[in-house]
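Subject: sequence -> structure tokens, single chain

Hey, anyone have a minute? Need the predicted structure for the following. Not urgent.
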Amino acid sequence: MCAESIVAVQQMSHGESNPLNIGYVANLHYSLLPATLGAFRKLYPTVALNLFDMTRSEQYLALESHRIDLGFVGLPPNLSDHNLLSESVAHDTIVVAVPAGHPLVTKPHIMLVDLRPMFFISMSDQTHPGDKKWLLETCQGAGFSGSILQEAGDETTALRFVAHGLGVSLVPAQLAALPHEGVAFLPLFPALTRASNIAWRADNLSKPLKDYIQIVKSISRSMWPPAAIRSVHPAKSSSALTTARGSDARLSC
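Reply:
Had a minute. Here:
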């Protein structure tokens, strides 16, 4: 038997014949995702590992159709609508994006309630399900009703709307790494964080997937120790790699 056939048989005997396909949102998970890939490659050097840049809604569709095994979906999914399991693996620090010349830029401390009179830019439910609900609940938790003027299909568009003066936006601090001419990112006091989740199909029994989930959880705990996290969440709410946009974008490791 040739060496290639022996390897193939060994892979099949360990349930390793299929690649591991992972969806993620570009511009988020800068530190977590790359670290997990290296650890997985050491454990499964012969398993193909494919990355797909997708919006959250694209990831849910891909999970439903078995096109990906796991998604870095961000906000917790509505598990009642999908055959999914989910777990929080990160905590994103949330900042407020404002036009560069906005009066808030000169304030030493910015609280959520300072945003009461302003219009908000929200991510669209079509691409980022749950974002609008999280925003409105966050505002309600601070004692006011948020007014959403505009929705954006992606983070770059949201920042462009902010730069044009259409409103302010609550975004993960990692987005400051994107080109953002005309936009200032301001920290909130007290600090606001949001849980970020992974999701996978409950009926996916792949051993490489199971082990990858454990890798993500282990590395996440080392990056975000529970004692070091101070979260500010609305009462009823829980809750980047940069590549070209689009669900067809794919990296192979």
